[in-house]
Design brief:
With 542 residues, this protein is α+β, with helices and mostly antiparallel strands. The chain has helices spanning 22-32, 56-66, 75-79, 87-93, 111-124, 180-188, 206-212, 219-222, 225-228, 256-259, 293-305, 318-328, 330-342, 360-374, 384-392, 399-406, 423-438, 470-485, 502-524, and strands spanning 71-72, 104-106, 126-131, 150-155, 162-166, 171-175, 192-193, 229-236, 239-243, 268-275, 277-278, 282-291, 312-316, 348-357, 379-383, 409-419, 442-450, 454-464. The protein is built from 19 helices and 18 strands.
């Protein structure tokens, strides 16, 4: 087996621990009423892992494609790929509710093996769950069988190569299992970057980004992931789609867009051709405070509509800003509040702006453009320390989830997007729905991505976890939030559909839209083996 491939995934299943400082814990206890001694959740070791049910002929067919050493049936390999990284997934791995454990983990070594595995699965009635980094937070990698006799996780870890690079055209071809961190390392050797930095950067893969229409924190500058895709190779049980011959084309509808966001339900992405950019040599991250949500979002709208957004543009509402200040704790937070009050910023909303450029001059010009459009909006600049603190901690948030779970906190995020005219209504509707469902909860929100016509909203929820039925507690809150979102915006701006958002897809694209997608699925996956229960659950029957 290749060195460096973690075949069990158990060690790094969550994103690691990051102990909560005592002042943060005290503050949380006061705000959401945590019990002094929360009920401990059962450790992993007590989890029930059923025996694999893969038929003898099915297993033999898979082994003949990838070799017996790449069909894993052991407890740890299967347990390590039982679900993604949502709050509910984490609870299930701590012994709450039932885990969907795959019957085997299969590791193909190249795109041809992927096609052959899919053919074998179609022939032997086996569901296939494509698995990149396993960071899905919407049930995208849950090992559902969809009526098949068994379900395998198709782990793309071995598709980890940079296939080719064309510096003149600024294009790279990467295999789907390349992790974002490795992609950046490989590209940096050629002086390039993708500029795609979602919070799941440390684990997620190129194929996963394409399959979910991911958006990184610097999407205002580098674009969403789909903006970077120039070509894509998709393996299906009936053959291969290989798309992308030119930067633009009028040769009919863009079939690439059927593949991007298809969440493993139409096929397995094996290679992606991506636009790259030179690595920025000059960066500047700063913190600004604006007064109140409505005025602050007016400012972001102005930046977007004047097309002078910084590469990273992230606006926290007053609740999120207050939590960030409180968790900083002590004299520093108090001093910031007093300073802002003295400058008539009574309801502070923190704005992080980050510019990345190829020269000091370019950076200065772009920053000046942003600040010119910001000028009519009253703001206070607290400068580089806040911006740099955010930049250095930008991937740390997820690490605190384990610590929060350990002390009895319900912690989860959800996201949406809408047009500017609906943005504040949507935020209020989601906040209200979550608070009514969860009672004494902290509901924080930020604009994570801005466009000329609207923006996305990203919510983080903290509440005291219920001792009885904690999964039900969150599922009720999530349903309430989704029902608030459905009439006002999209059910997902970048987390994708998975199982969790599937009930809301028809509301967004209409029944004809579902029919179109179902027809595509039937053409590419006639027996319905691909990612059962996700995106289009009703189309699984094949
Ligand atoms: C802490 C945390 C922070 C996050 N932050 C962000 C963020 O900032 N922005 C963002 O966009 N998302 C974010 N996410 C969500 C998640 O990281 C993205 O959905 C990511 O794109 C998934 O990549 P992955 O490789 O982990 O895919 P996986 O989780 O393995 O899979 C996701 C879906 O894609 C399918 N899939 C995976 N690989 C392939 C393939 N090669 N071919 C076909 N289908 C495939 C899977 O079956 C599944 O349906 C976050 C998640 C976590 C846990």
């Amino acid at each position: 087996m290749e060195p460096g491939i973690d075949h069990t995934l158990r060690g790094g299943w969550t994103l690691g621990e990051h102990a909560l400082p005592p002042h943060a814990l005290r503050w949380l206890r006061t705000r959401i009423g945590l019990a002094e001694h929360p009920t401990p959740i059962a450790p992993d070791s007590v989890l029930t892992v059923p025996e694999p049910e893969l038929s003898i002929v099915g297993r033999a067919a898979l082994e003949s494609v990838v070799g017996a050493e790449n069909v894993l049936l052991d407890r740890n390999s299967r347990l390590g790929r039982s679900g993604g990284m949502s709050y509910v997934d984490l609870l299930r791995h701590r012994g709450c509710g039932e885990l969907a454990v795959p019957d085997a983990v299969v590791l193909p070594g190249d795109p041809d093996e992927v096609v052959a595995v899919l053919r074998a699965c179609a022939e032997h009635d086996i569901g296939v769950i494509p698995f990149g980094g396993g960071t899905s937070v919407v049930g995208g990698v849950t090992a559902l069988r969809g009526g098949k006799h068994a379900a395998i996780v198709l782990d793309l870890t071995r598709l980890n190569r940079l296939v080719s690079i064309d510096p003149l055209s600024r294009l790279v071809v990467l295999q789907a299992g390349v992790r974002a961190t490795d992609a950046e390392r490989m590209l940096a050797a050629h002086g390039f970057t993708l500029g795609h930095f979602p919070q799941s950067f440390e684990r997620a893969t190129i194929g996963g980004f394409a399959a979910t229409r991911s958006a990184g924190q610097a999407s205002a500058g580098y674009g969403r992931f789909e903006d970077m895709v120039d070509g894509v190779r998709l393996a299906t049980p009936v053959g291969e789609l290989d798309l992308g011959v030119a930067p633009a084309t009028a040769a009919g509808p863009d079939l690439k867009q059927l593949v991007i966001g298809s969440e493993g339900a139409f096929g397995v992405i094996t290679e992606v051709t991506l636009r790259v950019r030179p690595v920025a040599t000059h960066t500047r991250y700063e913190g600004y405070f604006l007064d109140g949500w409505d005025k602050a979002t007016d400012a972001i709208r102005d930046l977007a509509q004047h097309r002078v957004l910084a590469d990273v543009t992230r606006l926290s509402d007053a609740e999120e800003t207050e939590v960030q200040l409180s968790l900083t704790g002590g004299v520093k937070a108090g001093a910031v509040r007093a300073y802002l009050r003295a400058r008539r910023i009574n309801d502070p909303c923190l704005l992080i702006l980050g510019w990345e450029a190829g020269s000091a001059g370019e950076l200065a010009v772009r920053r000046a453009g942003t600040l010119r459009a910001l000028r009519p909006h009253r703001y206070v600049r607290l400068g580089k320390p806040i911006g740099e603190t955010w930049r250095h901690g930008r991937f740390a948030g997820p690490r605190q989830r384990d610590s929060l779970l350990n002390v009895g906190v319900l912690v989860e995020t959800l996201e949406t997007a809408t047009h500017w005219s609906q943005l504040s209504t949507l935020r209020s509707a989601v906040r209200g729905a979550l608070q009514r469902s969860l009672g004494r909860a902290i509901v924080m929100c930020h604009v994570s991505h801005a466009y000329e016509t609207g923006a996305s909203l990203y919510f983080t929820v903290l509440a005291a976890r219920a001792d009885e039925d904690p999964i039900g507690q969150w599922q009720r809150a999530k349903r309430a939030a989704s029902e608030a979102i459905a009439p006002l915006g999209t059910i997902t701006h970048h987390h994708a559909v998975g199982t969790d958002h599937a009930p809301y897809l028809a509301g967004e694209v209409g029944s004809l839209g579902i029919d179109v997608m179902t027809s595509v699925k039937r053409a590419l996956d006639p027996t319905g083996v691909l990612n059962p229960g996700k995106l289009l659950p009703a189309a699984d029957r094949g």
